[in-house]
């Protein structure tokens, strides 16, 4: 099996690095067993970046290794130590690479040395418990998880960036012409389709240096996919001018330079987008006697059609100097009209939903689905094995207004609420009017909302309601004792009846009883 040396189309699967997890840690030292939270944040994952490198001329590396991944971020540590950042993965691509998604939509056109594109963004690192501490939540017993990096499958298509494009029938002498005017040494032979890949040559004409590319094997019907021309016509889209290399010494029956030129122009017109390019015509092989005679016969007709025609011989070098300077003049004019291309950094960002807020709630067959960048990101950051972390997530969603919006849409207690990707959603049971729990006092790692029996909470509400009817002399403690006496007659604040056998200060044989 032949190993390709030139590849101009590949499908590439890239994965950015995952962010490191935050850590829940408590500062400890002698005589300070609980010195406060000191868990550090996780480091962000590395991004995948495409960068134009002039030394790269083919996509062959990605043909052999189509899957690339950036480095993950490191997890945080105690003593406020943050995790290390994951290294970015920079993928060099040739100048003129077009990046598309799998639907064929163009994401970027990579032109100009140093142009960069962040194709996959690294995941954010999770916050440690030190960063999550607040005036209400002084010692969080949880941390946030790092987010996964973006994954995307893209197509890379190379459109060679050349100043001059050579087109013509197979064996017209395009490769020989490039070898004659530059240091390029393409494979040359006298049979069709010798050139299987575009050849590039660097040409100097005085102070002007430009590149010339030949397009393999254009034949009649190339725009419909015949031959090799269909695959390589795109390589002349960026050329400033097109040079028709016409074989004047062809021995094929029915062939003549005028018809060959007309056939090539017809294929270029059918391909489209090249009508504004200047044309030059190079009548090649005039060193052959028959070729010189045929060139003299057709040159006037071609010039009357408006073409600038040169009689050349790629083998002997005849007429190539005049052709080179004519090409250089066109290149100079095109460069003067073209704006200077500056290296730029391209970052893909998802488009905001028109008129959308932070989230939206929709009803589907499985229940209620919450969509939005914030709630989906928060779900990815939550450690569902930690009840306090789940409570913190509920607090965030409640402050965002998710519960209110669900109730407004008609959700009732027990309905399924889904957050996250369609194929990997987190499902909750809707329970409205539940107080936020991550700030509530309780044992570390415990979310009070998971406990159905909470009499102390109800008692605080009763006391607060009774405070509105208290007398001026009563304090809150007096109101609490009065409620206790009304609810549990004969029972004191210690939950035993005074004078009973459970009273430690009372005994039947006590003479003072």
UniProtKB/TrEMBL annotation:
Compositionally biased tracts (Acidic residues): 500-513
Quaternary structure, from the entry: Monomer.
Location of the protein in the cell: Cytoplasm
InterPro entries on file: G_OBG, GTP-bd, GTP-bd_Obg/CgtA, GTP-bd_prot_GTP1/OBG_C_sf, GTP1-OBG_CS, GTP1_OBG_dom, GTP1_OBG_dom_sf, OBG_GTPase
Cofactors, names only: Mg(2+)
Top-tier EC class: hydrolase
Residues reported in the UniProt entry to bind Mg(2+): 175, 195
Superkingdom per UniProt: Bacteria
Domain OCT intervals: 351-432
All residue ranges annotated as the OBG-type G domain in the record: 162-332
Protein's gene: obgE
Pfam families the UniProt entry points to: DUF1967 (PF09269), GTP1_OBG (PF01018), MMR_HSR1 (PF01926)
Function noted in UniProt: An essential GTPase which binds GTP, GDP and possibly (p)ppGpp with moderate affinity, with high nucleotide exchange rates and a fairly low GTP hydrolysis rate. Plays a role in control of the cell cycle, stress response, ribosome biogenesis and in those bacteria that undergo differentiation, in morphogenesis control.
Residues the record lists as binding GTP: 168-175, 193-197, 214-217, 284-287, 313-315
Regions of compositional bias (Basic and acidic residues) in chain numbering: 454-488
Entry keyword set: Cytoplasm, GTP-binding, Hydrolase, Magnesium, Metal-binding, Nucleotide-binding
Keyword Metal-binding: yes
EC number: 3.6.5.-
Disordered: annotated span: 66-90, 454-513
Signal peptide (residue range): none
Domain Obg: 4-161
Similarity comment: family membership: Belongs to the TRAFAC class OBG-HflX-like GTPase superfamily. OBG GTPase family.
Name of the protein this chain belongs to: GTPase Obg
Cross-referenced PANTHER family: DEVELOPMENTALLY REGULATED GTP-BINDING PROTEIN-RELATED (PTHR11702), MITOCHONDRIAL RIBOSOME-ASSOCIATED GTPASE 2 (PTHR11702:SF31)
């Amino acid at each position: 099996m032949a190993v390709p040396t030139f590849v101009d189309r590949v499908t590439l699967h890239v994965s950015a690095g995952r962010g490191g997890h935050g850590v829940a840690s408590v500062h400890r030292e002698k005589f300070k067993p609980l010195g406060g939270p000191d868990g550090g944040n996780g480091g962000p994952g590395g991004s995948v970046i495409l960068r134009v490198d002039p030394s790269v001329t083919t996509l062959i590396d990605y043909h052999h290794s189509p899957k690339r991944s950036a480095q993950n971020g490191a997890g945080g540590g105690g003593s406020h130590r943050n995790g290390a950042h994951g290294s970015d993965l920079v993928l060099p691509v040739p100048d003129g690479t077009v990046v598309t998604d799998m639907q064929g939509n163009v994401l970027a056109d990579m032109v100009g040395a140093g142009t960069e594109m962040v194709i996959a963004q690294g995941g954010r690192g999770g916050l440690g418990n030190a960063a999550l501490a607040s005036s209400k939540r002084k010692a969080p017993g949880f941390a946030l998880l790092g987010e996964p990096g973006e994954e995307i499958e893209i197509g890379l298509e190379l459109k060679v960036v050349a100043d001059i494009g050579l087109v013509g029938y197979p064996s017209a002498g395009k490769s020989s012409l490039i070898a004659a005017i530059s240091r390029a040494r393409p494979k040359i032979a006298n049979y069709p389709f010798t050139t299987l890949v575009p050849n590039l040559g660097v040409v100097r004409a005085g102070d002007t240096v430009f590149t010339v590319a030949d397009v393999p094997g254009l034949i009649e019907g190339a725009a419909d996919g015949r031959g090799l021309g269909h695959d390589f016509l795109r390589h002349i889209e960026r050329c400033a001018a097109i040079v028709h290399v016409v074989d004047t010494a062809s021995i094929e029956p029915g062939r003549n330079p005028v018809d060959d030129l007309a056939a090539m122009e017809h294929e270029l017109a059918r391909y489209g987008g090249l009508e504004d390019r200047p044309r030059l015509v190079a009548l090649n092989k005039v060193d052959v006697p028959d070729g010189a005679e045929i060139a003299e016969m057709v040159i006037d007709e071609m010039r009357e059609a408006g073409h600038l025609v040169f009689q050349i011989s790629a083998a002997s070098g005849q007429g190539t100097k005049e052709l080179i300077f004519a090409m250089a003049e066109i290149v100079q004019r095109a460069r003067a009209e073209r704006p200077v291309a500056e290296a730029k950094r391209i970052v893909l960002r998802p488009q905001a939903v028109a008129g959308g807020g932070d989230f939206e709630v929709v009803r589907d067959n499985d229940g209620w689905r919450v969509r939005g960048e914030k709630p989906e990101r928060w779900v990815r950051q939550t450690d569902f094995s930690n009840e306090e972390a789940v409570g913190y997530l509920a607090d965030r969603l409640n402050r965002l207004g998710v519960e209110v919006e669900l109730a407004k849409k008609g959700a009732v207690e027990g309905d399924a609420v889904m957050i996250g990707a369609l194929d990997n959603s987190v499902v909750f049971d809707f329970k409205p009017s539940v107080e936020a729990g991550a700030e509530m006092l309780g044992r570390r790692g415990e979310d009070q909302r998971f406990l159905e029996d909470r009499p102390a909470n109800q008692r605080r509400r009763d006391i607060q309601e009774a405070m509105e009817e208290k007398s001026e002399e009563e304090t809150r403690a007096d109101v609490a004792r009065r409620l206790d006496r009304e609810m549990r007659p004969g029972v004191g604040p210690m939950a035993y009846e005074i004078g009973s056998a459970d009273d430690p200060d009372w005994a039947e044989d006590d003479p003072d009883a």
